[in-house]
C-alpha cells in the first residue's frame, strides 16, 4: 500500500493504472486489524481510486463512549494517516468527522515534539491536506520529501522527475496554443471590460485532469471557459437589459441552426 501511495503522490500513477487497480482489488479484502496507519491508508487508497469502502472500519478504534481512544495519539504516523483519510468522508459519515477533529487536534499539539522533517510534513498537511492539493504541485513537493526517505525507490523517483519535466513541456505547448488562439480572437481589444484570463483558466483545467492523455480536453475546456467568462462579463457589467434580451435571442437562434 505504501508503494501505491508513493507512486500516486509522485504523480506517476497514470503509468501504472492497471497494476494499481489489480492490487486494490486484493487490498479491499485485507483486514488491517488494529493498525491505525494501515486501516487509514487502506481506506484512503480505496476511496480515492473509486473503490467501495466503509467508515465502519474505524469503529474498532473507538472507546465505549464512542470517541477515538486517546492512546492512539502516540502513533504520529497513524494519526497523520487518519487525518488524511478523514477528508474523503461523505455526508453522514460522522466517524470520519470525528477522526478529522481528533487527529487534527492531537497533531497540532504534537508538532513541537516531532523530529524536524516529520514536523514539516505534518505542518504542511494541517495547512492543506493532500486530498485538497493540486496533483502536479503536490508531486513536485513530494519528490523532495521522498528523496530524503530511507525507503525510497530510486527508479520511481527518476521516473517522477522525467514525467514532471515532460508534462511541464506539454503544458507550455498547450498554453502557447491557447494564448495564440485568444490573441487571434481579439475579444479583449474589442471588449475592454472583459476579463483577460486564459492562463488562469488553463491552470484550472490542469487541476482537474493533469494526465497527458487529456491534452485536447484541457485546451478545449480552457477555450470554452474563456468565452463563458466574456459572456458573464457582458451580463454582469456591460449590457443593458434590452441588449441582453437581444443577445440571448441571438444565442438561441445560433443554437437552433
Automatic annotation (TrEMBL):
InterPro entries on file: Isoprenoid_synthase_dom_sf (IPR008949), Terpene_synth_N (IPR001906), Terpene_synth_N_sf (IPR036965), Terpene_synthase-like (IPR050148), Terpene_synthase_metal-bd (IPR005630), Terpenoid_cyclase/PrenylTrfase (IPR008930)
Domain Terpene synthase N-terminal: 1-126
Name of the protein: Terpene synthase N-terminal domain-containing protein
Chloroplast among keywords: no
Keyword Metal-binding attached: yes
Cofactors (names): Mg(2+)
Positions of the Terpene synthase metal-binding domain: 183-253
Record keywords, A-Z: Magnesium, Metal-binding
GO molecular function: magnesium ion binding; terpene synthase activity
Gene Ontology biological process: terpenoid biosynthetic process
Taxon lineage: Eukaryota, Viridiplantae, Streptophyta, Embryophyta, Tracheophyta
Organism: Arachis hypogaea (Peanut)
Coiled-coil blocks: none
Alphabetical list of Pfam families matching this protein: Terpene_synth, Terpene_synth_C
